[in-house]
Amino acid sequence: EVQLVESGGGLVQAGGPLRLSCVASEITFDEYTIGWFRQVPGKEREGVSSISITDGSTDYADSVKGRFTISTDNAKNTVYLQMNNLRPEDTADYYCAVALPCVGGGLIPNRYTYWGQGTQVTVSS
């Protein structure tokens, strides 16, 4: 069974950085799309960023462009989300996910099959 484990969340002051990590097991990073999503209680899950392992193409939500960067270490089955210049509105639980090649991925949550348990990010002002 595919498992995804996120880490790196915590409390950070506005303007500061955090780097989130997601380690996958029972999967090879060669044909899938990997995404980062976030969710605040009472709100719908929001796509943050994604990367295609096949061709390296990336997507970013408008709200994080220029501040967040997604990357992978394929040998370690790990995806990262480098978050800079954090804002209070970035506060959320952050999840990584895997979409199968046949359905693509992008920033659409329903296209993703496997999900981690999440890591909390809190940005104070």
Main sheet record: 7 strands, mixed
Global geometry: globular
**Separation of the first and last Cα atoms:** 40 Å
> Could you give the order of the helices and strands?
EEEEEEEEEEE
Which secondary-structure class do the elements indicate?
Answer: mainly beta
By DSSP, the count of extended strands is 11
Beta fraction: over 45%
Summarize the structure.
The protein has 125 residues and is mainly beta.
Structural commentary:
There is one protein chain. The protein is mainly beta and 125 residues long. Helix content is 0%, strand content 50%. The protein contains no helices and eleven strands. The protein has strands at 3-7, 10-13, 18-25, 33-39, 46-52, 58-60, 68-73, 78-83, 92-99, 114-115, 119-124. The strands form two sheets. Strands 2, 4, 5, 6, 9, 10 and 11 form a seven-stranded mixed β-sheet that branches. It has a four-stranded antiparallel β-sheet with strand order 1-3-8-7, with no helix packed on it. Strand 4 (33-39) and strand 5 form a beta hairpin. The radius of gyration is 13 Å and the shape is globular. The termini are far apart. The mean pLDDT is 93.
